Amino acid sequence: MVVDLGLKNKTFKIIFDNDIDIDYRLHDSELAEKWASKIKHLQNVPIDSVESCMEDVSDIRELYAEFCKFANIEPINIVPLDQGKLNQLHRIYEEHHDRLSQLKDNTILYKLHHSVHFHEGGTNKKNIKVGWGTYEGILTKQFKCYNFYEDSIIKNYIYLPWAELGKTPVTYWKDKEPNDQTRFNQLAKPHTTFRAMFFIATEDKVPSPLNTEFVEWFKLYKEEWFAYHGIPNWNNILEQSAPLLATTDYKGNMKDFKFNRIIL
Q1: Within 10 Å of residue 206's Cβ, how many Cβ atoms?
Q2: d(CA 205, CA 183)
Q3: CB of 187 within 8 A of CB of 166?
Q4: What proportions of the chain, in percent to the nearest 5, are helix, strand and coil?
């Protein structure tokens, strides 16, 4: 069912700093309609600076110390900060997420998570990311977002980011997480969490073939993983692309643009 969102010709604007405004057209898909409905409720709410990658999360030692104090847990030694330690920190984040996400002033929970991925090299600063964090509340839903992935990403178009409490299969493998089916099922996830977020691509991207070593490794775990998550397959598009939300005729360079607000 198509919902009437009150969008004239399904168009809206993104306003950037310095009063730059860009016109967008909502993509013709069920997912894009659902996304616009979510964002319409949030367009006058301030965005979350952590989710929108506006915070400096490079000092993971300080952030982890603050996290442990907030969570009331004993810290582990994270020196040297190798991938094994980053995996441990990610698991600590997972284990305490449900409890700490219910507390007030819990920004440090999300700062630590972003810092872990920052040090893993997983933060793509090339895209303009926008999210409302905990302000989106009940707007977070479960939906088969993976059914809407595009074959490629086009510069200046708007897409829905993968937003799971976990890692994609390739990231799981690349980060040297345990060669364990149970842990793989638990931590590696397809895109089923539909959050009120988006990113604006600042360059074209065509998914590259999956690493052959990963493909060989994945053969050992994929069938049970498919069954566990109820999905039929996994490929380079699902790993590297995203669902399209909106298009624009603007062809300029947005790499230095700073998001201000969205008007639907």
Answers
A1: 12
A2: 30
A3: yes
A4: 40, 15, 45
What are the residue ranges of helices labelled H in the chain? Answer: 30-42, 60-71, 83-100, 107-119, 169-174, 181-187, 212-218, 222-229, 236-240
3-state secondary structure string across 74-103:
CCCCCCCCCHHHHHHHHHHHHHHHHHHCCC
Phi, psi dihedrals of residue 167, rounded to the nearest 5°: -140, 155
Bridge partners, 188 (sequence order) = 167
Asked if 91 contacts 186 with a C-beta cutoff of 8 angstroms, the reply is no
Q: What is the pLDDT of residues 218-227, one digit of tens each?
A: 999 999 999 9
pLDDT in tens, 101-157: 999 999 999 999 999 989 987 655 679 999 999 888 888 899 999 999 999 999 999
Rounded Cα distance, 164 and 255, in Å:
26
What is the residue extent of each domain of the chain?
11-47+126-256, 54-122
Tokens of residue 194, six digits? 């539909």
- Angle, helices 83-100 vs 60-71, to 10°: value is 30
How far is it between the farthest Cα atoms of the chain? 56
Q: Average pLDDT for residues 193-206, to the nearest whole number?
A: 96
Place of tokens 């086009």: 154
| pTM, entire model | 0.91
Mean pLDDT of the chain: 93
